[in-house]
């Protein structure tokens, strides 16, 4: 069991009304924004399960949009997220899907289009108490929570890439807490997700990027 | 340093001759990167949010998103101001503050989940009412928060604080146990008395179901927070008077979890039974979803 701090009990400080349907939704969208790391021009949210059924009364729609705009779970601007999005020039759209059955009842897809035209699609689950996990990036199943410093490497599934990544981390003295490889098909796109207790230095990114089979890197620092 | 049960916690209090709040602080420092200063800062932030949420609806009531609540805290405060309240000023204030926090929560305002959003009114309601009536300092309130977090941690670890898992007894029941124990320490009671108060609070709400109308954190959640403060104050009064609960806290926590698990799923936050399942509850639910 993870260590439960004073502030896991007296907390989180959050915009109501629901830790799972509001705070958790903000956290999923905030993580999507971090993973995308480009100014967002347009966002489409697809809400499933309980999110689809009760989003209005829980403000899940505004919570997701607030996260995309970079508002943390305790930011009172979340209530007026629609107005803020218009001011900031971010287009948004919601698709309510009550038919599709997902693994978790509180699931949302976030499809992003950046100012350069680049796109990214992220699926997140709100797993209770304001906690969340990212379970899909661009159609590939992954799994991480952002509670640790997290490095996500998009790569071609070829021999030696994982060794290259661990070698680089080792040379930068990064202690790996968890590491997993996710792929769709042999030889196709894959993701390596590395989680560490301490900060992962930016300098390690250069070295990992030098492998020709590595196509993208995302770093989430705690 | 860590503790895993109420008995463990009591042993630590005796070994160190320290109250529950101090043991909880030492545990936090030993197991996280936070020092005492950082903990105090975070407690200060939490208390400020609690104070704002407890007071704002008394001047500016606002309707909840679902439209089921709004303005109740002000009504209770106004009623008391007319000198008509029947439950005395501490309880009347605690009720009003706790309902105010739920109103802020339901209208997308800022609150501190303690331990959950749906039960967020109980702890600030009790602490702030007591603060008004007994002129308590913020330092005393921090002790109350620390003490409450120890009880909440044990319930999160060994029972449940999720309505979907164990009903409202796990949310408002847990918040009420936390608040009861906090009052006892703030009023000079011993660690044993704190756990007795928490045990009374749990046993008094044992079996309480989670049945939110339309699945929203509005009604009956808001008035359940009011009953949570009444239960906390009552339980603390019993413990401070020297009455011991016959069942130890750890066994009460386990009983709460077992009762919760044996509740049918209609009564665990699914909005299918209890208040939500009544003809009127269903109609209200349909109307809100169709909006």
Structure description:
The complex is a heterodimer of chains A (about 220) and B (about 290). The mean pLDDT of chain A is about 95. Chain A has two domains: about 10-140, 60s Ribosomal Protein L30, Chain: A, CATH 3.30.1330.90; about 150-220, ACT domain (Alpha-Beta Plaits, 2-Layer Sandwich). Chain A starts with 5 loop residues before the first helix and ends with a strand. In chain A, the strands form two sheets. Chain A has a six-stranded mixed beta sheet with strand order 3-2-4-5-6-7. Chain A is built from seven helices and eleven strands. Chain A has about 220 residues and is an alpha+beta fold. In chain A, strand 5 (about 120-130) and strand 6 form a beta hairpin. Chain A is globular, with a radius of gyration of 18 Å. Chain B is built from 14 helices and one strand. In chain B, helix 5 (about 90-105) packs antiparallel against helix 11, helix 9 (about 170-185) packs antiparallel against helix 10 and helix 10 crosses helix 11. Chain B has one domain (about 5-290): 2-methylcitrate dehydratase PrpD. The model of chain B has no long low-confidence stretch (mean pLDDT about 95). Chain B is mostly helical and about 290 residues long. Chain B has helices at about 5-15, 20-30, 35-60, 70-80, 90-105, 120-135, 140-160, 165, 170-185, 190-205, 220-240, 250-260, 275, 280-290; one strand at about 110. Chain B is globular, with a radius of gyration of 18 Å. The chains are: A alpha+beta (about 220), B mainly alpha (about 290). The interface of A and B includes residues 11, 19, 53, 79 and 130 of A. Strand 1 (about 15) of chain A pairs antiparallel with strand 1 of chain B.
Largest contact between protein chains? A-B, 35 and 51 residues
Poorly predicted ranges of chain B: none
Largest sheet of chain B: none
Q: Enumerate the strands of the largest sheet of chain A in spatial order, edge to edge or round the barrel.
A: 3-2-4-5-6-7
Q: How many distinct beta strands of chain A?
A: 11
Biggest sheet details of chain A:
6 strands, mixed
- CATH class of the largest domain in chain A, named Alpha Beta
CATH architecture of chain B: Orthogonal Bundle
Instruction: List the domain count of chain A as a whole number.
Output: 2
């Amino acid at each position: 069991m993870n260590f439960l701090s004073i502030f896991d009990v007296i907390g989180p400080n959050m915009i109501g009304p629901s830790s799972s349907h509001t705070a958790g939704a903000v956290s999923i969208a905030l993580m999507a924004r971090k993973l995308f790391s480009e100014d967002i021009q347009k966002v489409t949210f697809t809400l499933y399960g309980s999110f689809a059924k009760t989003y209005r009364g829980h403000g899940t729609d505004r919570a997701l949009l607030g996260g995309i705009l970079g508002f943390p779970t305790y930011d009172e601007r979340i209530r007026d997220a629609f107005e803020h999005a218009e001011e900031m020039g971010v287009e948004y759209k919601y698709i309510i899907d009550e038919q599709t059955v997902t693994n978790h009842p509180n699931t949302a897809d976030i499809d992003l289009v950046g100012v350069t035209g680049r796109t990214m699609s992220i699926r997140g689950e709100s797993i209770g108490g304001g906690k969340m996990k990212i379970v899909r990036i661009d159609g590939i199943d992954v799994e991480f929570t952002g509670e640790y410093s997290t490095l996500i490497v998009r790569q071609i599934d070829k021999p030696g890439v994982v060794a290259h990544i661990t070698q680089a981390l080792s040379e930068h003295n990064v202690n790996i807490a968890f590491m997993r490889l996710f792929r769709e098909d042999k030889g196709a796109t894959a993701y390596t997700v590395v989680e560490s207790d301490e900060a992962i230095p930016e300098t390690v990114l250069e070295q990992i990027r030098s492998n020709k089979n590595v196509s993208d890197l995302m770093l989430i620092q705690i | 340093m860590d503790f895993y049960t109420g008995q463990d916690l009591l042993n630590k209090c005796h070994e160190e001759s320290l109250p529950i709040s101090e043991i909880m602080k030492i545990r936090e420092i030993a197991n996280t990167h936070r020092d005492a200063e950082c903990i105090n800062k975070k407690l200060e932030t939490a208390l400020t949010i609690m104070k704002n949420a407890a007071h704002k609806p008394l001047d500016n009531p606002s309707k909840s998103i679902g439209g089921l609540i709004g303005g109740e805290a002000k009504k209770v405060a106004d009623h008391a101001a007319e000198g008509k309240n029947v439950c005395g000023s501490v309880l009347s204030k605690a009720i009003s503050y706790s309902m105010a926090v739920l109103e802020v929560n339901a209208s997308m305002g800022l609150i501190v989940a303690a331990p959950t959003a749906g039960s967020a009114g109980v702890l600030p309601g009790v602490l702030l009412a007591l603060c008004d009536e007994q002129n308590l300092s913020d330092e005393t309130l921090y002790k109350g928060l620390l003490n409450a977090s120890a009880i909440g941690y044990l319930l999160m670890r060994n029972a449940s604080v999720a309505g979907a898992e164990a009903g409202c007894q796990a949310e408002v029941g847990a918040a009420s146990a936390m608040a009861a124990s906090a009052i006892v320490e703030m009023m000079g009671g011993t660690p044993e008395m704190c756990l007795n108060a928490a045990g009374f609070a749990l046993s008094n709400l044992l079996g309480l179901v989670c049945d939110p109308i339309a699945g929203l954190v509005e009604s009956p959640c808001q008035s359940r927070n009011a009953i949570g403060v009444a239960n906390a104050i009552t339980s603390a009064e019993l413990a401070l008077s020297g009455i011991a609960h016959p069942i130890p806290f750890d066994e009460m926590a386990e009983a709460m979890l077992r009762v919760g698990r044996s509740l049918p799923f209609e009564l665990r936050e699914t909005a299918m039974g209890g208040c939500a399942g009544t003809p009127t509850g269903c109609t209200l639910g349909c109307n809100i979803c169709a909006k």
